[in-house]
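Hey, resending since the last one bounced:
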Amino acid sequence: MQPPDELMARDFLPSMRQLVARELRSQGLSQGRIASALGVTQASVSMYLSSDAERAYSTLAGLSVSRENSRRYAALLAEEVQRGPEAGVRTVVSIWRALLGSGSVCGAHRAAYPSLSTCEFCITEYGKDSVARLDAIADVSDAVKLIESEPTFAAVIPEVSVNVACAPRGASSPAEVIAVPGRIVRVRGRARALLPPEAGSSMHLSNVLLVARRRAPAARACINLRYDQAMAEVLRKLGLEVIEIEGRPSEKGGDPTVAALEGRLERPTRRFDAVVDKGGGGIEPNVYLFGKGAREVARTAVEVSRAYSAR
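The structure tokens again:
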């Protein structure tokens, strides 16, 4: 018996721990806090930080994980482990299963165990949700096209830019949620996506969506827009049900908007179409629109942009 999880324990997990440790250190965390977040000893953290990161990138490349994706996974996991051990475990397992399902690990696994040269178990077992992921990617792609074709949309892009997130069926971590890498930005007065949508591309919006789904499971997609008094009036005129939060930075770190939304949804809450984060303490106000799919939230966002521009 030679399961691929041997490769996870030997190659993938130590390499990701090193990259996540370095990411957390770049954010100013002490070795003690990094050790606590990763669930390892401080001596291990010291070793991760003093070792050459190129070895980790090389090891991950042997599993068909590119340097760009290695960095993206490290940034994602650095965010998740600060939310708690359960979030970190859920996300690292989701990433690993996605790699198994895509066939990325097959080459290294077969090289280590030539008797498995014809094995396709992982692709069959872990790739079974690929249809749902492809549907979500198509949904976000169509939403982006709709947004890019709308001349008024640039008016509602906040300083932090816009993203659209869609949770495929069964998604439980940001690594599984589809969004736009690099976000949707303003280019010469029009909205433009920098890259095509893919899984794990927005820790922030994905976590906002996943938290909202605990109370509103029918919501599979989310988009963020600028928020000010004019936007408040537009939301009211369009009849959207809104709940408000104030995402302020805390000494504990983490995502202020996600923390504020988690706290708000612990209390009795009416049905909502949107969440307004009024911000403060350096956090830009944003409104988050929710819907049953990315196309739906894009259509609502376009309607909002037209009303906002016509005010």
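The longest helix spans residues 5-26.

Sorry for the duplicate.
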